[in-house]
Amino acid sequence: MEKDGDLDTFLQGFEKACRQYQLPIDQWARYLTPGLRGKALEVFASLPREQDGDYEAVKQALIKKYQLTPEVYRKKFRTLQRGPQDTYRDVVDGLRTNFEQWIQGLSATTFEQLKDLMVKDQFLHLCPTEVRQFVMDREPPDANKAAQIADTYEANRRPEVRKPVVASWKGGKPSTTIPAPASRPSGGLFPIAKALPASDARRCYSCNQTGHLSATCPEKQRKNPPSKAPGPNASVLLMGGPVGRACENFQSVRVGDTLTVGLKDTGAERTLIRPELVSPEALIPEKTLTVTGIGGVRCPLPMARVFIDWGAGSGVKEVGVSKNLPANVLLGTDLGRMFAYYVPDTPPRSDTVGSSSTLVAPH
Questions:
Q1: CA 268 to CA 280: how far, in whole Å?
Q2: CA terminus-to-terminus distance, the chain
Q3: For residue 324, with 0-12 CB atoms within 10 Å meaning exposed, 13-18 middle and 19 or more buried, which class applies?
Q4: For residues 265 and 285, what is the distance between their CA atoms, to the nearest angstrom?
């Protein structure tokens, strides 16, 4: 064995040579140890004396030191490529060897165990990256346990939805209080309208009545009731073009493991993300989101299932994927209340959001 050689290949060749010469397995350790070099020799030297002649004990110690786990063999099995000098028979032999090492490391010896192993592996392949890593870190013994862990992960990251407290029909006071809404920054794009005093004599432009303005006209609200929550194919208002200096609508967003900048858009009913932030595994096959842009132009967008953290909540969300966005993430009203906003150190360019930004405290 070379000092920095491939231990897996060395052990496979050694065991094959022992079988060719019909050596009893209780003598294998005697012929193995003189051929070890570097780190492998250090592992053998650290073993207890009673294990010097136990080949399986020596082999397991070497595998543990070199981290030849079942996951390593699974990746080798899934990613094996044919080399320039390899025949197709070499490829088959390599696949067979990696597969056998994979199932042996997991002690899958029966047909039912092998079937569950393949189902669990395909299930993890379908999961988003962050869910797959979370499940694999907990080493589930079977596919059902893997699904249970994945459901727990998603449930724990689902944003909390609080329903408003309404007084009972008897007129009693509610048992809990509703927290006051967070104040919005001054100078925003959408300033909050102040309530008019009771003695205000200005008239409403819509109904010609006094005591309120057109923005809060009851007659207008009755004729134009609020629309229902958007479904998977709901239309949304897609912003386009440069965002200029509307920096108060920027806020930090984490998509998977990537921290980026999102743009709040109260006119968008669904959240959209640029394709470079979405892995191919996260795309939802044969599922699209219909987008209505300015001017009434409608176009379908692919959809993806990604983990997103927008400050006020986090979880796995179904979002639209589009490259025609003024920011990496367009935050829609499907996420609810925003948590903070970004103030870039330099004005953002028309083609991208400034990379140097400062996170403002919650407001």
A1: 25
A2: 64
A3: middle
A4: 27
316 with 163: CB under 8 angstroms?
A: no
For residue 14, which amino acid is it? F
Residue 62: name the closest of 136, 5, 18 by CA: 5
**Burial class of residue 147 in the structure, from the number of CB atoms within 10 Å of its CB (0-12 exposed, 13-18 middle, 19+ buried):** middle
Q: In terms of pLDDT, which residue wins out, 107 or 3?
A: 107
Helix (H) or strand (E) holding 310: none
Whether residue 195 has pLDDT greater than 70: no
Are 302 and 288 in contact by the 8 Å Cβ rule? The answer is yes
Rounded Cα gap, residues 278 and 256, in angstroms: 9
- Give the residue from 318, 266, 331, 320 showing the smallest Cα distance to 298: 320
pLDDT tens per residue, range 1-26: 776 677 878 888 898 899 999 999 99
Q: In this structure, which amino acid lies at residue 353?
A: V
